[in-house]
């Protein structure tokens, strides 16, 4: 297997609930999830199609969360979706009590599902199931879902674009770990991989959703017209990069290892996402906008919190690529450097945003498939 | 929470794939699973009802395994069931290729689902999902399953009967860890708990299965007319018991702890199981018989293998009840004692058997519900 794929297998978030776990370090995503909840509830009220439900022998309403990680944010989101659908049913005079819900939690097979399953509330309004596997492929039978959801997960790509680790390619990304600050060819390689992955995701969901089924996606992105290099994310990633380069200079890691290390993630933009969805053609866009001020659960996101945030995200990849122990050194260096860096986290600089897209599965007879 | 319930929460099999894991020590169950496979396939051919499947927009065929543990036997069983249903579909002129299968793997929430999910074959004919929770309750939406399966799991009870740990009761089971060799009241308490649990199991499955849906159960039991005390299982359990009593005498564990420790499991009999199923009333009995000569994967089940077998089964409970470390001592003592015990594993003595029951969900309009 290619090194690039090994990396992607390690991109699941840190499991468990220790200090570096995703569970303890996902308050930024939590903010987005909670801000989105209200919007999604409103869209369910106006757009969720109850015609699918036969009144004589009602089948369950099936909901899936794609890329749920080890849980807490996912449980909040799912709870909100179930409540909104119940409210919709009641508003239509349907006895919501006789309707059963089944919720499927998806993530990569390497995800800590034990943690997720043990944290399910024992009093809940739905039957729960965990579904392992990549959301870039089909994971459910056809027309078996009524609502699909995914939050802060679609920026992860299915693989690194081959070119960025190919010495012979103009998109070879040596000495960098991301496309920020890299030649245009690198950005293009990332962007076209993202488009392919998004298309696979949409086609797979189109197989699984009933016609008229809704899908809400929360996707990290850069705002239209903002150069990635101008963002605080750029500063953070370039700081990480420079720590790795320093570590290569004194031989803690090898230069070759740094050259072949690239983050398999991509920040799309509102415009780009729209094009990808329209090109795919299976869904109508009911909403596509930037989430306003996701509530941040840490009032002043401080340096320590941001360091932990990055660590929860990429420690798995660092371990897999450079071996165990490197992450400690890397993140120690990172927090020292970041503390000295005056530009760091300046509130005036643009940063990544969260897009919310609400899509509707086109009718099978009218849609392209 | 009562001590008795804490115990039941710990009854999941040892996870992982280490030397004491269930995965490495379940060849006896494996034998039963494989012997049953042929019978189940034949019953699917003659009794599986394909009327449920609409030919225009075929819904998936849903199968659930209740009490799957960490996996390997379950994967074999499920593979056999899917193949048999496909063959049945083909025999009816249905294009089996367009039919999708969804398989749900159920066990207690404390089960090692990570192990199960990572061992799923990547090339498989079905979508997979893990469903945590006790099979004594409803775990799926109504009429959402076509086939239910459970192997070597229904002998585990939902709780210890209260009486056996109640000093004031004639069924108080002090100085013993099971009903074998105990006063009749203890046996009765166990037997009535088993009947209640089996009834809950059947009612829950009746909710979940389509009418005409099949269910295959492999249940450990003693043959009709055999006194439990005469079996090799009795010898093994009484040996375990005597080791614990010895350990209490020299203070490694406390006497009170031994008095309150009881295995929450029960060996039913063909007659008793039949009565429980008929009393429940949701299913017709299509088959109920003793599995002939389950193939044993270890040709001569030796002492070491049997010790490991018991350890994989009850180590979790021993840890929970007596604390960590006690299991090592207990099983060392056990293998020393067992080696000296002449009666041990005599091939002439009766032993527990495996029953196979194939049940059919009665029609909703005709059945009691
Ligand atoms: C940052 S977490 C987001 C978790 C949660 N949805 C939230 O909003 O907090 C991203 C998750 O997506 C998962 N993920 C990434 N690529 C995936 C893929 N191809 N298929 C399924 N899950 C994937 C990762 O394993 C990780 O758990
Ligand atoms: C001996 S293992 C059998 C595993 C597998 N079916 C086989 O045949 O090898 C019994 C399994 O049943 C599970 N189990 C016991 N009580 C249960 C309950 N109430 N609900 C779900 N699973 C249960 C245990 O956790 C354990 O994994």
TrEMBL record, chains A, B:
Q: Which GO terms describe its biological process?
A: methylation
Species assigned in the record: Dillenia turbinata
Q: Which UniProt keywords apply?
A: Magnesium, Metal-binding, Methyltransferase, Transferase
What name does the UniProt record give this protein? SAM dependent carboxyl methyltransferase
Would the keyword Transit peptide be found if you checked this record's keyword annotation? no
What's one GO MF term for it?
Answer: methyltransferase activity
Q: Which Gene3D superfamilies match?
A: Methyltransferase, alpha-helical capping domain (1.10.1200.270), Vaccinia Virus protein VP39 (3.40.50.150)
> Does this entry carry the keyword Methyltransferase?
yes
Question: Record's PANTHER family?
Answer: S-ADENOSYL-L-METHIONINE:CARBOXYL METHYLTRANSFERASE FAMILY PROTEIN
